[in-house]
Design a protein that fits this description.
Elements (H helix, E strand, L loop, with lengths): L1 H4 L9 H23 L4 H15 L2 H13 L3 H26 L2
Helix pairs in contact: 2-3, 2-5, 4-5
Length: 102
């Protein structure tokens, strides 16, 4: 929804999708960290994490954006986008998980 409200121009770095995915990863880290801290069952954390955070993030849009960048011949941007998405998202989740454990 946010991607439709604030679309990135065609052929440019998909900043909106990146922001959505990183914030969803951060939120997942928060939920898991707080859930573990307060003794929530793993099943509850899985449902909330996969259900809510999975709905929040946009892996299919990430894939679509990546393909469009490649089709436009923007190999450097597509590699940057893939590496950034696959490293910054998990890093955000790990950082928030660590903060949630405090």
């Amino acid at each position: 929804m946010l991607g439709l409200a604030i679309p990135a121009p065609a052929g440019t770095f998909p900043l909106t999708t990146s922001a959505i995915n990183v914030s969803g990863s951060f939120l997942l880290g928060l939920l898991v960290g707080l859930g573990a801290r307060h003794g929530l069952p793993v099943q509850v954390m899985t449902i909330v994490g996969a259900g809510f955070c999975g709905a929040c993030t946009t892996f299919s849009t990430f894939s679509d954006d990546l393909v469009h960048l490649c089709e436009k011949g923007q190999v450097r941007q597509s590699l940057l986008y893939a590496v950034a998405s696959l490293s910054v998202g998990p890093a955000a989740a790990a950082a928030r998980l660590a903060l949630g454990a405090l």
